[in-house]
Design goal:
353 residues, alpha/beta, TIM Barrel, two-stranded antiparallel ribbon, binds ligand 9MR
């Protein structure tokens, strides 16, 4: 065989080989559009500052989302080490990341009974000094982030489940039943432009809690106390609560002229613990559930749609796994950062009919 023929034979041989190895399946799918590019409202994600060390994490988060909530770092416990003692580093890091990535920041949360530092829980001074310390804290934190934080959850989860009564937190015990109004006013005084939210879970289906939140809004509005919106956390399952309950709560907020933030969305698919892996059927059910929630949000007047925030990026990062003790896949991305059908459900619900 002359050298040219030999060469041709070699090429043919390689071609045949590579054809044989070529997975002749379909073309790889187009990458999905980013939620932040498609949504007519901010789409947020919550995570902890430790994730900033993971380049894959930050690039997927920044590519996909246009808003950031600190999952932990902007609560009072991590920030406040004592009266006048502030630990800003982790919150600053998240805010700096958001600024570089063009993401807005939702501040979460000024007061939450679950994250009150011990020095306040066991405050040694008078009630008046307690309130001065709270006012000082709110003023300092809101002022520090006034150029970066677009909105704050001023108070988180102030009402008890089922009864709707004001939780008997240290804030209520020290400042009295009207403390909510005063802390909203302190936040407004610190920044006239930041949007002020009340944030809670269960309001779509817990009738007394829902009535309490709406009564608080009505009371604020009748007295001129500032409030711009209400956050519905939306920690839901793939079947509960009915979408009509969520819609009714959103409508009640909108009818009062306030903005709606679906502030901590995750959708449990294994509430009964019957799954050990995420099945295609349950994944599809999750996709439809995310779709109906996003569609219901899309149906609100555009100036009342504040944002939808996912409470975590990837399934294994979710708080729900340790909280409930079941395997769970409640978010839009899987462990390998791949968008799930639920992501497509979100995306599809953004498209005009
Ligand atoms: O997901 C958050 C978890 O990492 C924290 O340890 C916990 C306590 O700060 O808070 C979790 O987030 C909560 C949110 O701040 C308020 N609504 C309920 C969320 C789940 O507990």
């Amino acid at each position: 065989m002359n050298i040219r023929l030999h060469y041709l034979a070699l090429i043919l041989c390689f071609a045949a080989l590579s054809c044989a190895q070529d997975p002749t399946g379909p073309e790889p799918p187009e990458p999905l559009a980013a939620l932040r590019d498609e949504a007519p409202f901010p789409v947020g994600v919550a995570f902890q500052a430790s994730r900033l060390n993971n380049a894959q994490y930050t690039s997927v988060a920044a590519r996909t989302f246009s808003s950031l909530t600190a999952e932990w770092e902007m609560k009072m416990n991590p920030i406040s080490g004592g009266r006048g003692i502030y630990n800003w580093q982790a919150a600053d890091d998240l805010v700096a990341f958001a600024r570089v990535q063009g993401m807005q920041v939702h501040g979460h949360t000024l007061l939450w009974h679950e994250t009150t530092p011990a020095w306040l829980e066991n405050f040694a001074g008078s009630d008046q000094e307690f309130e001065e310390a709270i006012q000082e804290y709110i003023t300092t934190v809101v002022d520090r982030y006034k150029d970066d934080v677009a909105s704050w959850d001023v108070v988180n989860e102030a009402f008890d489940n089922n009864t709707g009564l004001l939780r008997n937190s240290v804030y209520r015990r020290r400042m009295g039943d009207d403390y909510l109004a005063r802390v909203f006013q302190y936040a407004r005084d610190a920044d006239p432009n930041v949007l002020l939210f009340y944030n809670d879970y269960g309001t779509p289906y817990d009738a007394n809690k829902r009535a309490a939140v709406l009564a608080m809004v009505d009371d604020f509005q009748s007295r001129g106390i500032p409030i711009d919106g209400v956050g519905l956390q939306v920690h839901v399952t793939y079947t509960f609560p009915p979408i009509g309950d969520i819609t009714a709560m959103m409508d009640a907020i909108v009818s009062r002229g306030l903005k709606v933030h679906l502030s901590e969305l995750d959708v449990r698919v294994n509430p009964d613990g019957d799954l050990t892996t995420l099945t295609p059927a349950r994944s599809q059910a999750q996709k439809e559930r995310v779709g109906e929630i996003v569609s219901a949000f899309m149906a609100l007047p555009s100036d009342k749609r504040y944002a939808i925030t996912m409470w975590g990026l990837r399934d294994p990062d979710s708080w729900l796994i340790s909280f409930w003790g079941n395997p769970e896949w409640p978010l839009l991305f899987d462990a390998d950062f791949a968008p799930k059908p639920a992501y497509e459900g979100f995306l599809e619900a953004l498209q005009p009919e």
